[in-house]
Amino acid sequence: MASSWVARRMEVNGIVQGVGFRPxxxxxxxxxxxxxxxxxxxxxxxxxxxxxxxxxxxxxADLARxxxxxxxxxxxxxxxxxxxxxxxxxxxxxxxxxxMSTLIPPDVSxxxxxxxxxxxxxxxxxxxxxINCTNCGPRxxxxxxxxxxxxxxxxxxxKMCSLCQAEYDDPGNRRFHAQPNACKDxxxxxxxxxxxxxxxNTSTPIERTATLLKQGCIIAIKGLGGFHLAVDAGNTDxxxxxxxxxxxxxxxxxxxxxxxxxxxxxxxxxPAEEELLTSFQRPIVLLEKIEPCPIxxxxxxxxxxxxxMLPYTPLHYLILSHGFTALVMTSGNLSEEPIAIxxxxxxxxxxxxxxxxLIHNRDIYLRSDDSIVxxxxxxxxxxxxxxxxxxVPVFLKKTVPPILxxxxxxxxxxxxxxxxxxxxxxHIGDLENLSAYEFFISTIDHMKxxxxxxxxxxxxxxHPDYLSTRYAEELKDIKKIQVQHHHAHIVSCMAENLIDGPxxxxxxxxxxxxxxxNIWGGEILVxxxxxxxxxxHLSYTPMPGGAAAVKEPWRMAVSYLYDAFGDAFMDLDLxxxxxxDEKRIKIMVEMIQxxxxxxxxxxxxxxxxxxxxxxxxxxxxxxxxxxxxxxEMLAEKTIxxxxxxxxxxxxxxxxxxxxxxxxVANDVQKGVEPSxxxxxxxxxxxxxxxxxxxxxxxxxxxxxxxxSGGAFQNSFLLTGLIQTLTRNNFQIFxxxxxxxxxxxxxxxxxxVAAANAEN
Length: 759
Prior knowledge:
Blueprint: E1 5-15, H1 21-31, E2 35-41, E3 44-52, H2 53-65, E4 72-81, E5 89-91, H3 112-118, H4 162-169, E6 190-194, H5 205-214, E7 219-222, E8 227-232, H6 236-246, E9 255-256, H7 260-263, H8 271-278, E10 284-288, E11 305-309, H9 314-320, E12 327-331, H10 343-350, E13 356-360, E14 372-376, E15 379-384, E16 394-400, E17 403-405, E18 415-424, H11 434-451, E19 457-461, H12 467-474, E20 479-483, H13 485-496, E21 503-513, E22 519-527, E23 532-538, E24 541-542, H14 548-551, H15 553-565, H16 575-579, H17 582-594, E25 600-601, H18 604-615, H19 626-634, E26 646-648, E27 653-656, H20 658-670, H21 674-700, E28 704-708, H22 715-727, E29 731-733, H23 745-757
Parallel strand pairs: 2-5, 7-13, 9-11, 10-14, 17-19, 19-20, 21-28, 23-27, 28-29
Antiparallel strand pairs: 1-3, 1-4, 2-3, 6-13, 7-8, 8-12, 9-12, 10-11, 14-15, 16-18, 17-18, 21-22, 22-23, 24-25, 26-27
Helix pairs in contact: 5-9, 13-23, 15-17, 15-18, 15-20, 18-19, 20-21, 21-22
């Protein structure tokens, strides 16, 4: 061996397991004629490399520059080693280490080479619904523990046949060390059953499933992160039956199409949307409808958008190849329950919904709903961050202690921190029943195990009745820090943008427990990571019936009208006063007057509800945020005019809604089109809050504005404020990595707790 040979040990951290990283290292080492070995460990990937120093330097440069597309290197440390006289380069068995710091890869869609093989009659995996390789397939949902090797995944039950094993062992093969590698002879299989769990006698269960879908049947299909409930999206009767059985009255349902050509038959697809649809994450992308439309109106009623995705598993491709424009692919659950992932559980919970079940025998260890995104104001915005993105961390500006943040009640996610990384969980959902709470607990336990995090601090919401709050308060031997809901919203946006305070924070949503015990939601805060003060807020108004007012927006309309007009509001010529029984309206007024079950709220979400009801759009909702969403869908975006607005100045500016209510009610009585009223209302909010930011900016000397909260899922409001505030020389920060709604709030809770723990 040449005396000029040297040896180095390289420790690589990041997403470097399950993404073809070791095969890449093997091939790169052979390219530079270097010897040594590479292995997965619980802390990442460790490489021992020997050879000429120049070759090692070139190898090191290419390691970061040319790594596989799904890999994400966060750190490479280089150490001098003694030469061990390796004769070649090899991939060795994985080993454990004291600290688990490797990043777990997310689930990714089927890659192009695998898809080509799937439909190639000459390929041995032709039509095999579990085809995958190093560059694609299940990851997070099948992992039981790390390091990421087959024995620690749900593929441990399937012994590879000789052909698959040969591929797995061949460094030149695309399936070299692909942990889920399998074929029809040795891997998972699909089966078709009826709702009574009788196996359907067929040698082609996928083809039979397609036939049943064309006949109008509802099929429960086991996918990557759980079950979907599927129907032909063009069959109105089938979609209506699914809605009725699932108890999902009007909430939009996602659809899946075979390719872009099929999607363009019913939706507008721009370059940014196409890039999202075809990305390896394969999220649901919100696309504007086109008319005439081959998709049933029942799929997304009273909405300008479809939630659309491309197939991300070979099973999806095989079903959709049978000539469907689109299939509804909605979560396999009853409304408000977690999606089913286990075959037995699916039969038990979904037999009242599905006519048939297309199942398989590969276990899902972690349920994971589809992610939802929308292209707004020039960038991608999350409505839900889950499959395809989790568990990739949000990287923080600095190292923080190990913290568990328990999130909110609605759209719950949890967050665990480790060093400079914040790991948000997949979508858990609304913590309003036992099954959701059990999913919440199991997610925390699994993430703590996989990420090797033992939290020293637990952060949670101020609301005393949230199940997430009760969970946190019952924990023993851990520091507890309560975090105000809207402060957490603002800090979550600050954290993902790597900024410190103070900032002006616009925190707008439907419900959040305020520091004064009232229900907040229309807040302008001056905040940093540690503290906040309320600089402005919408005036308080009663919510007659409390939570019932969220489901029945007409109650909020009565509250706003009574506040603005007094008893004279009953004489107004408004649709709401004709559509609701007068006795019920008088009961609401009495509740408001006597302050009986009518808590005060400053929520912008409730103002949206009230305006929607006054206009005559919706008196009742079947899902959270429905009235506000339909008000946005209706808005004429070219309207520049605004309603009068005002506020009472002071240490805390109090925004008066009465002038807006007067303006809206007068326009309704004049017969102004609802679309114009909605556009004018939206423009009023943009102008009003922009002017308030100008005043608060002068008072504080601050020019950075952070926008967070569920109301910023509203494209009109978000885009309008970004444009107006930017023109007014403010620097604007918005969400692009986590949702602005409560699905991102756990990140803010964790960072507020970290800042307060420093003392």
